[in-house]
Design brief:
Layout (H helix, E strand, L loop, with lengths): L7 H11 L18 E4 L14 E4 L3 H9 L7 E4 L2 E4 L4
Antiparallel strand pairs: 1-2, 3-4
Bound molecules: zinc ion.
Zinc ion binds next to helix 2.
């Protein structure tokens, strides 16, 4: 659920702030086939604003990471998603 249009200028600012890395797991966009998308940290349906501080550049996995963190599945960088363990580089 992407939930609405994010102005191009705002998208550019998010990418700039993120240095083209996923803001959840710090994976670099370079070398990734899938283009990272801009994610609402607090979803729009939950009242989240389309503002710089509520947006995050996210890889495909980033959405799941955000979900896991939001639901306090983990307080570190390793978690399990449907029996698959993800260990994220949190250095
Ligand atoms: Zn990520």
């Amino acid at each position: 659920m992407s939930g609405g249009h994010i102005p191009t200028s705002l998208q550019r600012r998010v990418r700039l702030r993120a240095s083209d890395r996923c803001e959840y797991c710090r994976l670099a966009q370079a070398g990734q086939e899938a283009t990272f998308h801009i994610d609402h940290v607090v979803p729009r349906v939950a009242g989240g604003a389309t503002a710089l501080e509520n947006l995050a550049l996210a890889c495909v996995l980033g959405k799941f990471v955000a979900f896991a963190v939001r639901h306090r599945w983990t307080d570190c960088c390793c978690f399990e998603l449907r029996d698959v363990a993800f260990a994220l580089d949190c250095s």
